[in-house]
Structure prediction request, 278 residues.
Amino acid sequence: MSQSGYKLRFWGVRGTVPTPGGETLKCGGNTVCLSAALADDRHLILDCGTGLRILGNELSGLKRGVPRQYHIFLSHYHFDHIEGLPFFPPLYDSYSAITFHGFRSGGRSVRQVLEGLIAPPYFPVRLAGVPSKVEYVDTDGLPVTVSDIEVSCLPLRHPDGSLSYRLQHGGKIIVFATDHEHGDEATDKALVRFSEGADYLIYDATYLQAEYESLRRGWGHSTWYAAVKTARLAKVKTLVLFHHHPDHSDQDLEEILRVAREELPATEIAKEGMELPF
Ligand SMILES: [Zn+2]
Ligand SMILES: [Zn+2]
Prediction:
């Protein structure tokens, strides 16, 4: 694949819980998952919400019996970011090599966290026994290179922790900053530096300002207005509002996009199927 030929695709854009139903059809109701095909046999994935199942179904349509590599970067381990994992067909394919990248949580390694979750009585199959070749990387905070993409991480402000990831190659930058609450000066400044000049900033815009101020301080999420402020300070080219609240309908999200664009015209709202070229 050419140096400039990647596309980061959204398979799930919803935060907290999947939201099937007519009110969310346009943006989609699956929880967080994005991916980029780096080659026919190599894929980079961000988070494993229910969108991962749809990605897995698409990958299942590829030629069988071919070795494939998957590098999966996990922002954190809340359900909406990992609940699609048991339903990812490459896990059950002996030709797959899957590497999970994440952070140690509560003294447990990425392996311990994930193997503890995908096991009886939560799920009938043990992750520890799947036929694919699975590896785990506990981040040391340093960048990792996958194909020609440098993946860097930055801790965000969120209960139980969360990591932002920056994908960089050939002068193009995408920052994935989900599950983050603005308001801690040091973290906010670090995120601005991390996002400086990015082509795209994908940012946690869970709440309206009024929802945040009245009830949701300390819940670990942010607002479209804080997203705009961060994008402006970091001089990002395009802001993508993400991690939509489960109670926000397509109509609500259109309204959020409308008011956000009054502040920052280069703003988009994340939808399933949307692709960011980089
Ligand atoms: Zn979340
Ligand atoms: Zn979370």
